[in-house]
Amino acid sequence: MPSDLSTGRVLLVGAGPGPADLMTIRAMRAVQGAQALLYDALVCDEVVALAPPGCVRIQTGKRAGRASMAQETIHRLMLRLARRGLTVVRLKGGDPSIFGRVGEEVDYLRDRGVETEVVPGVTAACAAAAQFDIPLTHRGVARRVLFATARTEGGRLVDLDWTSLADGQTTLALYMGRSAVGQLTRQLLAEGLAEDTPAAAIENAGAPSARLVAARLPDLAAALETMAPSGPVLILIGEAAARAAAGLDASDLAPPTAAPALIRKA
Ligand SMILES: C[S@@+](CC[C@H](N)C(=O)[O-])C[C@H]1O[C@@H](n2cnc3c(N)ncnc32)[C@H](O)[C@@H]1O
């Protein structure tokens, strides 16, 4: 359906992993020009503060125990604001195209004649890789990188293509995997990934508060428990993650636990 010029438009913008200086200039300009801002829980206050005075600010994600807005409500809200002629910015953590539901939102709006534009952002895996010296691909070691989600539904891990995941030459970047990490590592080991495969979990990637815990694959779940993160966590699995542990020394050792875990701050 052609777009209606009397309606506003919706920019679906990646805010990056946290700090405002990891946004693209285009993303920053979009927020500075917003008349209505709908932002997810992972978008930090510093970024929201870039919106101009008078901009309608609506938080759509869960923070401090409050419930998230239903996706259908977000759709309708964006549409209503755009039909008032406003420039709407839908601000998402990281990159909108990585587990950001951007496809659904774009389809909903375009089907109703609203012009949309997607502005990319730095995804959590890239932020973690840069901050902790873990190349997602590494010549001769990691030939592929695979972004996957290790979400659970009803306490069970969502079905994934385990054969393609359990590949020694792939770096796995796993989003939303914290609660499923035990099931996930057991499944990867059962599919044949070597026990000494290096793994790391990174909390608050990109921010000064970032922390990394490194462990061999079978010990990752216990290592994460030792870390006890309160922020978002990204998991990296594969030979390239060995460099995360290589930068650690004895003073970085976590308190003794059943699992050898190395925790490092950014
Ligand atoms: C719904 S997904 C959104 C991902 C986002 N679109 C991106 O590109 O980073 C949310 C998950 O991304 C990961 N994540 C997002 N920001 C993160 C950060 N700063 N540090 C570590 N993990 C992060 C966590 O696994 C979190 O549960």
Describe this structure in words.
This protein is of the alpha/beta class. The protein folds into two domains: 111 residues, Cobalt-precorrin-4 Transmethylase, domain 1, CATH 3.40.1010; 142 residues, Methyltransferase, Cobalt-precorrin-4 Transmethylase, Domain 2. It contains nine helices and 13 strands. A six-stranded mixed beta sheet has the order 6-9-12-10-11-13, with helices on both faces. The chain has a five-stranded parallel beta sheet with strand order 3-2-4-1-5, with helices on both faces. The chain has a two-stranded antiparallel ribbon with strand order 7-8. The site of S-adenosylmethionine (SAM) has 21 residues, from strand 12.
Task: Determine the fraction of residues in helical runs and give it as a percent range.
Answer: 25-40%
What CATH architecture of the largest domain would you give? 2-Layer Sandwich
Shape: elongated
The largest pleated sheet is described as: 6 strands, mixed
| Number of helical regions | 9
Number of strands: 13
Helix/strand/pairing category: alpha/beta
CATH topology of the largest domain: Methyltransferase, Cobalt-precorrin-4 Transmethylase, Domain 2
Radius of gyration: 20 Å
The total tally of domains equals 2
Q: Which segments are poorly predicted (pLDDT under 50) over 5 or more consecutive residues?
A: 249-260
Which superfamily, in CATH terms, is the homologous superfamily of the largest domain? Tetrapyrrole methylase, C-terminal domain
Strand order of the largest sheet: 6-9-12-10-11-13
Return the string of H and E elements. Answer: EHEHEHEHEHEEEHEHEEHEHE
CATH class of the largest domain: Alpha Beta
Fraction of residues in β-strands:
15-25%
